[in-house]
Amino acid sequence: MSNKINHYALVGGNIVDVVAGNLISGHSLIIKDGMIKEICKDQQLKDDIPHISVNARYITPGLIDCHAHCFVGQFGDRGNVMPSEMTARAGQHLEGMLQRGFTTVRDAGGADSGHRSAVEKGLFPGPRLFVSGKILSQTGGHGDHRAIADVCGCETVAGGMSVIADGVDAVRKAVRENVRQGVDQIKIMGGGGVASPGDKLIHPQYSLDEIEAIVDEATRCGRYVMAHIYSDVGIRRAVEKGVRSVEHGNFLSIDTAKVMNDHDAHLVPTLVTYEADAKYGPSFGWNEENSSKNAEVLSAGLTSLENALSNNVNVGYGTDLCWSPKSYQGDGLLIHEKVCGAAEALRHCTLNNARIVRMEGKIGEITAGAHADLVVLDTNPLKSMNCFSQKSNSIVAVLQGGIPVRDDKLLFD
After folding, report:
1. Which end of the chain is less packed: N or C, by CB atoms within 10 Å?
2. Per-residue pLDDT tens for 132-180?
3. Is 6 helix (H, G, I), strand (E, B) or coil?
4. pTM, whole model, 2 decimals?
5. Which domains does the chain show, CATH number per domain?
């Protein structure tokens, strides 16, 4: 199929309605100019449109990863790899994500508007990108990866992924600088992390005045704030000050989940990274403290997911695979499925994530007026998320804006 053909119909497939959690059969998808123009009954389909048969396969919306990192190197690379090489690596990572069916990705720190522009211009293939630019971190926070003996006062650390900003004036300036450089959202470190050397998971980071200032600056220019936080107290104080998207959130309690619901805040769990890092951490240089922290958040992850779902918090899906293989990107859906079933897990990485990136009705569902970002599978995703895993993957085609970027069965020849 030539890329010049921009008007055709996908016929003979089972369309996955992620909203209702069921299949629509006997209907065709009409694609025009990269968008879903119409879903019509097969008998109403006109013959003057080219027909592409998917042979009773299953068609889902393109997947969305709301916490990914494409601009990362190896664990020991910090400060030793030039941004030019990091961008080359990012190109490889982004193409891999697209091939796995993730047609939209929110990068959670490191990628900037240049990466987004490169994808949009076709300089390298990749998902639709929402970028955070430099992550805001307090001195000694999760984004401050300087060694204890490093007394450098440099504001930018961690290979350009973070900026240290302390105090209301400094965080306001950091937000404004990120916005000037074209970010889609602001990412802050609201608490300790597994990989950082100088903080504990339980400790909230940034003062309430600093968080309030960051949210104010972001809101006034049409952005929102996403915050890396594990601790329950950190989640509550951030959400009450206007943070919209909580990343990780492994120690979320029932009471704080109610606060999140009251404030219409979203939760983006990243459960697969802890399983992968438990396996690969020693090979890329983790010490005993890193491994201990990772075990702690891994054991708490499913409970936080249950607490959020039981209190009607919008739960998205993220992977946060920094140093472990990104091939685990789809495996995390199996973890979500354990708690809520396959249909709900699929909503997390489609419909729910579309809400988080503020693209409702445009991505994450198969509906008229949405982008034709689609995945074709051999097996029914409503029965099991195994179809997206690396071991039992059944993806045969990926469409981005109606154009096949993966076509294993030559459906579009």
Report:
1. C
2. 999 999 998 888 877 666 665 555 544 468 999 999 999 999 999 999 9
3. coil
4. 0.95
5. 7-62+365-407 (2.30.40.10), 63-356 (3.20.20.140)
